[in-house]
């Protein structure tokens, strides 16, 4: 097991990740639907961003993203070698309406 495999998000980063989840989850259902992300990005390549987001994060292909899938995704970003500072920069970028970025070399194992 490499040094990044067992890494977990710090409590502060976990809170930050969940804050962004809540911005997408406008109906408070504890899951993100595609209609919510399309509204979030408005016309800024909304459909493309939504498709890329769901391809990356919706691991059970249910058409919604649960809090658990969301946290697992960002944990896998951390474990793939990205720093929490890089994750924070990406979260800030998404919060300001920028496009979804595909992270390469993520462990795509389900579960």
UniProtKB/TrEMBL annotation:
Xref: InterPro entries: EF_Hand_1_Ca_BS, EF_hand_dom
One Pfam family cited in the UniProt record for this chain: EF-hand_7
Coiled-coil residue windows: none
Molecular function in Gene Ontology: calcium ion binding
Species for this entry: Paramecium sonneborni
Protein's recorded name: EF-hand domain-containing protein
Database matches in SMART domains: EFh
CDD domains in UniProt: EFh (cd00051)
EF-hand domain boundaries: 45-80
């Amino acid at each position: 097991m490499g040094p990044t495999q067992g890494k977990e998000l710090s409590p502060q980063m976990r809170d930050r990740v969940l804050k962004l989840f809540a911005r997408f989850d406008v109906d408070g259902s504890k899951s993100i639907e595609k209609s919510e992300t399309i509204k979030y990005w408005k016309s800024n390549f909304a459909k493309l961003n939504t498709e890329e987001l769901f391809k990356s994060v919706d691991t059970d292909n249910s058409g919604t993203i649960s809090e658990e899938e969301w946290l697992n995704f960002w944990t896998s970003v951390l474990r793939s070698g990205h720093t929490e500072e890089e994750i924070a920069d990406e979260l800030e970028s998404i919060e300001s309406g920028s496009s979804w970025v595909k992270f390469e070399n993520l462990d795509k194992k389900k579960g």
